[in-house]
Amino acid sequence: MDKRLIDAAMAARNKAYAPYSNHPVGAAILTDDGQVFSGCNVENAASPLGNCAETGAVSAMVAGGQRKIAAVAIVGPDSRACQPCGGCRQVLAEFGEEDMPVYLLDGKTGAVLEEYKLVELLPHIFRRKQ
């Protein structure tokens, strides 16, 4: 596990805008060429218009010219594992392989609480035909 991924997820979580849920989340993506991109959740009074941390990190990665996720780390506000929502699982699947590691971190220490392969979180990945 790349420590830069942990540090980036924790730092992003600390910048989250979550006044409605009080549940700040940070995510960091490691690309196949070693770059790290991060994102945080950004809530909105019109609830469905908020953005998840994972989609923010993917947007940063794509804006940075990258298209391949090698690993992702996600951290919430406390010592419980913060699972990605269903939509974020599919967004991650757009750019990651089935065996891509997904690390869920302890929000207090940054330790890995749970580790999954993407296919374990989304067993029937929807992919576009090429």
From TrEMBL:
Residues 1-129 form the CMP/dCMP-type deaminase domain. GO terms for cellular component: cytosol. It holds the Pfam family dCMP_cyt_deam_1. Zn(2+) binds at residues 52, 85, 88. It catalyses: 2'-deoxycytidine + H2O + H(+) = 2'-deoxyuridine + NH4(+); cytidine + H2O + H(+) = uridine + NH4(+). GO terms for biological process: nucleobase-containing small molecule metabolic process; pyrimidine-containing compound metabolic process. Keywords: Hydrolase, Metal-binding, Zinc. One of its GO terms (molecular function) is zinc ion binding. Its cofactor is Zn(2+). PROSITE patterns: CYT_DCMP_DEAMINASES_1 (PS00903), CYT_DCMP_DEAMINASES_2 (PS51747). Its EC number is 3.5.4.5. The active site is at residue 54. NCBIfam families: cyt_deam_tetra, PRK05578.1. Belongs to the cytidine and deoxycytidylate deaminase family. This enzyme scavenges exogenous and endogenous cytidine and 2'-deoxycytidine for UMP synthesis. This is Cytidine deaminase.
